[in-house]
Amino acid sequence: MILAINTSTPQFGLALLDEEGTILSEYFMFQEKGHFGNLLPALHFMLSSLNMDIQKIRAIVAATGPGSFTGLRVGLSTAKGLCHALEIPVIGVSSLKALASQLSQSDLPIVPILYSRKNEFFTACFIRDHGTELVRTMKDQALKIDDLASVFTEPCYFIGTDFPNQSKVLKRNLGPVAHLANAVNWNLRPSSVGALGLIRYHSRKFDDPLALEPVYLRPPDIRPNPFPATAQNP
Length: 234
Fold this sequence. Notes:
The structure is a single chain. The chain has 2 domains: 2-95 and 188-202, Nucleotidyltransferase, domain 5 (2-Layer Sandwich); 103-185, Nucleotidyltransferase, domain 5 (2-Layer Sandwich). With 234 residues, the chain is α/β, with parallel strands linked by helices. Helices cover 28% and strands 27% of the residues. A 5-stranded mixed β-sheet has the order 3-2-1-4-5, sandwiched between helices.
C-alpha cells in the first residue's frame, strides 16, 4: 500500500492505494487556509476505517509543486518525516503532471493550470503519446494571464483547480483555442498523485529524502512585518 499526499493546491488531501493502483481510501477537501493540521488526523481516520496499521504503508508519494509555498513545505516535511519513521522510500511527483493525468484521453495537448499570485498561472503542456503515455512538451512555467494567448496558439485542453473562475479567464483570453475539460475532472486529486508515484514505485525509482525539494517557479511572497520587534531596555 502507498500513501499519496497533495498539499500543493487549496483542494488538499490524502489517498491510500494498493500496489495495483486500486484506491482504498481518499480524503479530499477544499479549505483555503489552516488545513495542514488535518493531515495526520485524516490519515489516522483512513487507516482506522480500513482496519489497517500504518506499518502497511510501503512508500509515500508527495506532490512537489508548483503550487502553494506553505502547502508544499508542509506536505513534503510530513512525507519525509513519515518515511524516516517508517523506514520506507519517498517519491516526488509534479503537481502539474498529476493534474494533466486526470484527462485520460485527449487528441489535443493537455495544459494544466494552477493559480499563482501576481495575476499568473503555473502551467505546462503534455500530450498523450499513442493515446496513453503522458509526455511533457513544455517545462513548468509561471505565465502572466495576459501572455497565455502568445504561448498557446493552437487548440488545447485545459484543466485546472477552479472551474468557475479559471474557465472564464481562459475563454476570455484564448477564445476557441481553449477547450475545457469537464468540470468533474478538475481539481487535483491525491489519488492522481499516487497513481503517477506508483509507476515509479514499481520501477524502484525513489527520491533521496535529503535532496527532494518543492518546485518553486518564483520567489515566495515575503512581506515585511507591520509590527517589527523593538529593542527592550535591559
